[in-house]
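Intended use. Records like the one below are meant for learning the mapping from a protein sequence to its folded structure. Do not use them to infer anything beyond what is encoded.
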Amino acid sequence: MDLRGKVALITGGGTGAGRAIALALADAGVDVAVNYSRSADAAAATVRDLESRGRRAVSVQADVSVAAQVQRMVAETVEALGRIDILVNNAGFTKFVAFQDLEGIDEATWDQTMAVNAKAPWLCAKAVAPIMKRQGAGRIVNTASTAGLRPGGSSLAYSVSKAALIQLTRGLALALAPEITVNAVAPGILLTRWSEGFTPEAMERNRNETALKRFATVEEVADAVVLFARSGSVTGQTLVLDGGRVMH
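Structure written out for the chain above:
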């Protein structure tokens, strides 16, 4: 798909990987709606950077785990930018709890993790699918994690939620074909504010467990999202960006 003049909606698009994805898509000629839940200042800064690249951009507040707010977010995006061609489900939630500490995860934390990481992408996909189908084509890219491929990550709840997202990616790829492709990127540890929850010792141990002795960058994740946005022949796939750690 020629990305010039297309419109992307990126959930959690104001910071970290979401911001990098927004900038990479803008550099490819895409206008961008930056969703945020609480980080209004960061979203506004990202919008300014997108506009400085010559693209149209807006920020849209919504808790994407709430159906009514998702519908409003999508409507506001279409009103401001005219269409939605690309959805990037990047918003996420985690709380660092030792993997073996079942008592450390209360029901509220479990429910919020599943709501943001697994339910929200379903709500967003369901909301944009009719628009994309009317337009004749669409791309959905989900931000998963290697924690969804093997037990690990910041908590058991997080790992389970990302496994659910990977399976949702496959299911949506079948449900929304042939007009819409659905794929996922699965980074390992990224050097963002989320990784601040790991101790330096844990970071070094995880780095040494990668084949390439390095973590992926948010810019590399963004490049993978742009690849999926362009491709019309790839769907239902999860691309791992972790320096080769899951091979071990």
